[in-house]
Amino acid sequence: MGTYAVTGSASGMGAAVVARLREEGHTVIGVDVQEADVVADLSIAEGRRSAAAAVLDRTGGALDGAVLAAGLGPAPGRERSRLIAEVNYLGVVELLEAWRPALAAADRAKVVVFSSNSTTTMPMVPGRAVRALLDRDVAKALRALDRFGRMAPSFAYGASKIAVSRWVRRTAVTREWAGAGIRLNALAPGAIRTPLLEQQLATPAEARRIKAFPVPIGGFGDPEQLAAWVVFMLSDAADFLCGSVVFVDGGSDAWFRAGDWPRAVPALRLRGYLRRMKEFRTGT
Ligand code: NAI
Fold first, then answer.
1. Which helix (H) or strand (E) holds 43?
2. DSSP summary character for residue 33
3. Atom number, ligand 1, closest to the C-alpha of residue 191
4. How far, in Å, is the centroid of ligand 1 from the Cα of 68?
5. 151: helix, coil or strand?
6. Whole-angstrom distance, CA of residue 265 vs CA of residue 269
7. What is the pTM of this model?
8. Where are the alpha helices (DSSP H) in 89-178?
């Protein structure tokens, strides 16, 4: 049986993951701003530091896996954009960096980060905000979002999930992660019936927008099903999964982006491709 850290453990998909892992007999350390083994506010640096340390204190040095589900959806106001940037992006990367040695100390540890299909289905998310988040400059990301007015929190959400997915893909394949035996991947759900979605459905205009959104399979996803995907991505069956963003979204991503990926490396980028081949071979 393993020891797992789960953020966002008090509600929605995080809570469903905790229940499944505990049913299977694993030890789970839940992290949340409320009702958790480790109560911490991931929207502030000190909260992230104390959450990371408190989890490590409880592990005895090795962590078999982590699930990063704490997150906030869009709601009105600039403060919401800040919360989204801090929790959805820094609340993932800072905790995982602190936990990396404990994950490396376990045998074939697995990490699942909650992304979203907003990464590919929300148009016009500003690249500057994504880049600022990857540079961990929240103030700069907020400035890049300011000109979008009341749409800013929605774009903050999209930017936070694109940034965290890129961080996962870039980080997963490095010597410190894949090379240390850690499998780092992301799960990108579509609209799933959790308190986060219910909050958005409570606003009539938002509800209309969400219900009009193309979902080829129809309806909303179920948190229990997504929890089953997470548990699968933590299992031995996922030993060969590394740096993937797994979409479980009823087909919305495929509806909008079917022709965008997979796509061969174009001739113009062949040099970069060959350079990456060499880098891998020589370990530089
Ligand atoms: P939820 O609202 O049910 O649960 C989120 C949890 O995060 C809550 O327990 C909340 O207390 C915690 N949290 C929020 N702010 C925090 C903070 N400052 N410090 C510590 N914990 C904090 O949401 P849900 O739907 O289960 O979302 C889980 C993840 O899945 C999130 O990252 C979300 O962005 C993502 N997601 C959700 C979708 C949906 O339709 N529900 C769709 C795509 C992605």
1. none
2. S
3. 40
4. 9
5. helix
6. 6
7. 0.98
8. 91-105, 118-121, 127-134, 138-146, 152-172
Whether the CB of 155 sits within 6 Å of ligand 1:
no
Strands (E), the chain: 3-7, 27-32, 38-39, 65-68, 110-114, 183-189, 245-248
Is residue 284 predicted with pLDDT exceeding 90? no
Please count the residues of the chain.
Answer: 284
User: Which tokens go with 283?
Assistant: 């370990």
Beta bridge partners of 114: 187
Q: 89 in ligand 1 pocket by Cβ < 6 Å?
A: no
Q: Which atom of ligand 1 is nearest to the CA of 86?
A: 18
Residue 157 falls in the annotated catalytic set = yes
| Contact (Cβ atoms closer than 8 angstroms) between residue 245 and residue 169 | yes
CA distance 185 to 117: 15
Taking the CA of residue 88 as reference, the ligand 1 atom at the shortest distance is 32
pLDDT of residue 68: 99
How many whole angstroms from 69 Cα to the centroid of ligand 1?
A: 6
Report the distance separating Cα 49 and Cα 1, nearest Å: 27
Strand partners, 45: none
Compute φ and ψ for 192, nearest 5 degrees. Answer: -120, 135
Residue 71 alpha carbon to ligand 1 centre in Å: 4
Paired with 111 in beta bridges are 66, 184
pLDDT in tens, 198-213: 999 999 998 999 999 9
Residue 13 corresponds to which tokens in the numbers above? 């998909």
Confirm if 113 and 168 have CB atoms less than 8 A apart.
yes
